[in-house]
Amino acid sequence: MRQWLFVRIAAVLLAVGASVLTGARADSDMDAQIRDIVTAELAPTATASDPGGLAAAVYAGGRVAFFNYGFADTAAKRPVTSDTLFNLASLRKLFEATLVALGTERGELRLDDPVGKYLPELHGSYISRVTVGELVNHTSGLLLPTDHPPWPNEAFSRDQFIAMLNAWMPPEGVQPGKQRIYSHAGYVLLQLVLEQRYRMPIATLIESRILKPLGMTSTFIPDRGEDNRAAMAPEIMQRMVQGYSHDGTAIGSPGNQQSYYDFPGTGQMFSSARDLGILLRACLDGAVIDPELRAALQVTMRESFRVDATFGQAMAWEHVRLDGVTVIDKPGGLNNASAYIGLVPARRFGIVLLANRGDYPHEIARYGILPALANLIKTQIH
Hints:
382 residues, alpha+beta, nine-stranded antiparallel beta sheet, 10 helices, 13 strands, 38% helix, globular
């Protein structure tokens, strides 16, 4: 009897071991196929003849894989790594949107609050009708001269910005909440609303409410010095990229920031592929201890304004409906930096692309990598 029992236990252990090995082999095969897809798309865009470099993070199957190409600084031959710090450009908007969503979850503000509730100096006939929710999903209608070419040569103080908003009148037919018009100025105004509501700088808000709870230790909005360079400790500055134009011309110096607004908090955010991999996991798998922050991240991704059959707008995030897959993403870019984060929540995977050159073709992720990964994972599931 005892011998029979030992034989049965051994058989069960062998079966379990075989199952684990089969599962591990399947995971390994999946990882290899993911790497093949990503490498086939990215490698041709980051060759030795292309300026700067590229860092990518891909989250799939509960794991993050990193891909690095080229140089953070070509002259110094300093290679890009997963810890290299890049300018995020408009990816910063995702964090301000999360602050708004978190505030609504905690009952601290409402999407239908008029901006004048927090900034009484906004009394213009149009801006006084704009709400917090319309700022966060780009339906305010605002389109200031700092939002589009021809780009101004001057910078604007906080008082000048408020005056511009009070004086601004829309083209005929534009009304708050009735159309989607991408607005940088709207998010600068959102920064001021959040700072006034919580009585602390935007960098402190993002750090304390989002970055620290997520464990993102290499993401920050630095103070901007008089030379428009990030004011950071030397050891941090050594991790910053040199930015390049699309043709390879160096623009600014490492830590370069650009803004038409000359008041605190209006520079760009910096982060690494490794840190943004944490954000991917938090968005896709709910890897957040704080349930309110977890809920807020999900709220930001919900479409709130349908533009057309293909495109929709959420809180900073954009929805793109492709054949059989919906991509939720956010691109960002300057003349010396490009950034992109894209998610397919239905399949629980996503990608981050960070490049230290302007006009990097992030569309390869939206229309190439993400649909290919969706098809791969769908096939594996079935």
